[in-house]
Amino acid sequence: MFEKLYEIKTDKLLHFIANAAITWFVANVLMFFINPFISVGIGFVVSVIVALWKEYIYDKKQGKGVFNKEDLKFGILGTFAMTIAMICIIFAI
Length: 93
Hints:
By secondary structure, the protein is mainly alpha-helical.
């Protein structure tokens, strides 16, 4: 298992962390105003939109980077991981 983790490139890990952070930030800000579960859902949606925007619009359409399905995959995996973690924490409280 650790061998697989060592094979993950830094760029992919940064996509994972960035999207997890976006999910966490958006959900935590919204929790002051709305239901925690709804805020986590909105955080999830915002993070997926950011991942899609970054890879498809910014990289592919505007030509400012290289479109990479793996980057998109790791970004969305980070979003899922943070969403699941936040839901578990909300249920624990």
